[in-house]
């Protein structure tokens, strides 16, 4: 297929959702004033919301069908496998230099002072810089706060031949081309910043990624996680056993409800029924395609009460999830050995779900979403976040490009000309996003459908030694 076709297909799907966010939220605002309205008006609004929602699901269903009947499904599978094989081979090559005593290395300490999802993102960032500077990544993990014996006890080592951080010369970042070993700090205190940081993807892969995938950076992160997170045999056995014990099977929606220390500090509280609304929406749409015997949910949370609450309130659903796992997550101050297997299990099952409903303010859900990308040619739209759009901690500004001009119709709306570059702050899920217009310096709301994503690229090494 030509890229334009793939981009348009995704654009229509995204903007169908945006269109309904806009209409639905407008109607809900009117509904809130129902006290002053006649019952006839109230009924009309309810009618619009109900049938309008059905209309939207039908449109989305048809667009999704297009993907299955346009004749490119085989191409998508092959291209996805091909791209993945290409980068995985490059990763293997980078991580297994012929002579470790002379290899150029980048040393990264896994033990960033934060949670498991955050530490995985730290490791991925280190890997991006290693790939960009063509240095073998050495991951230091002895005394890891989640598992004292270290990473290799749970996951396979990230190199078969080169794990020692020693060398002829060592320096802190950035070092120079002569320095054999470079120590990398956390992304928050990295100076100078190399061009390899998110949301940047390798230029040599970008045209193919932009055609295949709705959000190339998420694909890129997903591929690095695929390389890093190869479980040891015993880890794999624990995961398999837990999944069959819980009765994990498809179709299934993964719901992540982040509570405890996050709420009120880094994120707002969302009630269980807010998540359930989107689970319902997913299943209502899926029902247009297939018969569903049971609406199944995998629910993960750091708050054990939430699983019981959901099971009691929604008895017509099959809600699986391990309260014991969340119990450990809640009790073990989250940063200890006992909670590691719990969070690994939860993230794995979330990533294996058909669709995710969560808050992207949590790194746990973002990691699950990233890992999910490696299971499909393009899973960019298999999620609903109740708060943030996708981001990567420490990322450079996330920019979009205006494809339609906008004249403000109300206070707070942005003036836009075609081609303007806008740094996005977030989507308000009501048809508008907030951003910073780099041409006019205005910070304001713009209609989300009037922009397209700007994929950032940089010249990474192209690893010509590894040809397929
Ligand atoms: P964030 O704080 O949500 O952005 O994500 P982090 O991964 O950095 O830190 C949160 C930590 O809380 C995780 O690493 C887990 O240890 C724990 N946690 C949060 N949500 C869950 C969950 O659904 N299940 C389990 N088992 N632990 C969780």
SS-based structural class? Answer: alpha/beta
Mean pLDDT: 95
Largest sheet: 5 strands, parallel
Beta strand count: 16
Model regions low in confidence, pLDDT < 50 over at least 5 residues: none
The H/E string reads HHHEHEEEEHHHEHEHEHHEHEEEEEEE
The residue fraction in helices comes out at 40-55%
Biggest β-sheet: strands ordered side by side in the sheet:
8-7-6-9-10
Q: How much is the radius of gyration in Å? A: 23 Å
Query: How many DSSP H or I helices?
Result: 12
> Which band does the percent of strand residues land in?
5-15%
In this entry the ligands are: guanosine-5'-diphosphate
Termini separation (Å)? 22 Å
Multimer state = single chain
Tell me the overall shape.
globular
Which key phrases capture this entry?
single chain; alpha/beta; five-stranded parallel beta sheet; five-stranded antiparallel beta sheet; 12 helices; 16 strands; binds guanosine-5'-diphosphate
Structural write-up:
This protein is an alpha/beta fold and 468 residues long. 41% of the residues lie in helices and 15% in strands. The strands form four sheets. The protein has a five-stranded parallel β-sheet, with helices on both faces. The chain has a five-stranded antiparallel β-sheet with strand order 14-13-12-11-15. Strands 2-1-4-3 form a four-stranded parallel β-sheet, covered by helices on one side. Helix 8 (272-286) links the parallel strand 6 and strand 7. The longest helix has 31 residues, at 39-69. Bound molecules: guanosine-5'-diphosphate.
């Amino acid at each position: 297929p030509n890229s334009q076709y793939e981009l348009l297909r995704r654009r229509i799907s995204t903007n169908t959702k945006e269109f309904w966010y806009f209409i639905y939220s407008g109607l809900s605002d009117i509904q809130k004033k129902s006290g002053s309205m006649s019952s006839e008006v109230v009924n009309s609004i309810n009618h619009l919301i109900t049938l309008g929602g059905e209309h939207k699901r039908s449109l989305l269903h048809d667009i999704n069908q297009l993907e299955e009947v346009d004749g490119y499904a085989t191409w998508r599978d092959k291209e996805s496998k091909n791209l993945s094989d290409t980068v995985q081979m490059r990763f293997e090559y980078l991580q297994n230099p012929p002579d470790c005593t002379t290899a150029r290395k980048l040393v990264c300490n896994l033990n960033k002072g934060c949670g498991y999802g955050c530490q995985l993102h730290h490791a991925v960032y280190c890997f991006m810089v290693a790939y960009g500077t063509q240095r073998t990544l050495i991951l230091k993990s002895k005394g890891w706060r989640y598992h004292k014996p270290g990473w290799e006890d749970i996951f396979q080592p990230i190199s078969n031949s080169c794990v020692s951080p020693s060398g002829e010369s060592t320096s802190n970042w950035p070092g120079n081309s002569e320095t054999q070993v470079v120590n990398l700090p956390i992304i928050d205190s990295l100076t100078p910043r190399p061009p390899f940081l998110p949301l940047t993807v390798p230029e040599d892969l970008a045209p193919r990624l932009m055609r295949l995938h709705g959000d190339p950076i998420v694909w890129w992160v997903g591929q690095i996680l695929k390389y890093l997170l190869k479980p040891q045999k015993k880890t794999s056995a624990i995961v398999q056993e837990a999944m069959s014990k819980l009765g994990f099977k498809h179709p299934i929606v993964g719901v992540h409800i982040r509570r405890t220390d996050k709420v009120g500090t880094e994120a707002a509280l969302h009630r269980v029924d807010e998540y359930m609304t989107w689970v319902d929406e997913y299943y209502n749409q899926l029902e247009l395609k297939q018969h569903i015997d049971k609406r199944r949910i995998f629910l993960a949370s750091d708050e054990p009460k939430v699983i019981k609450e959901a099971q009691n309130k929604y008895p017509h659903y099959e809600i699986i999830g391990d309260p014991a796992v969340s119990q450990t997550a809640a009790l073990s101050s989250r940063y200890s050995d006992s909670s590691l297997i719990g969070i690994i299990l939860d993230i794995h099952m979330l990533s294996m779900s058909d669709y995710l409903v969560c808050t992207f303010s949590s790194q746990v859900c973002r990691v699950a979403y990233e890992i999910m990308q490696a299971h499909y040619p393009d899973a960019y739209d298999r999620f609903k976040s109740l708060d943030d759009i996708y981001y990567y901690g420490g990322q450079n500004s996330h920019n979009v490009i205006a494809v339609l001009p906008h004249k403000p119709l109300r206070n707070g709306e942005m003036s836009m000309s075609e081609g303007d570059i806008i740094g996005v702050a977030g989507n308000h899920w009501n048809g508008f996003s907030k951003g910073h217009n780099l041409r006019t310096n205005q910070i304001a709301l713009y209609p989300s459908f009037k922009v397209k994503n700007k994929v950032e690229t940089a010249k990474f090494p192209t690893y010509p030694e590894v040809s397929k």
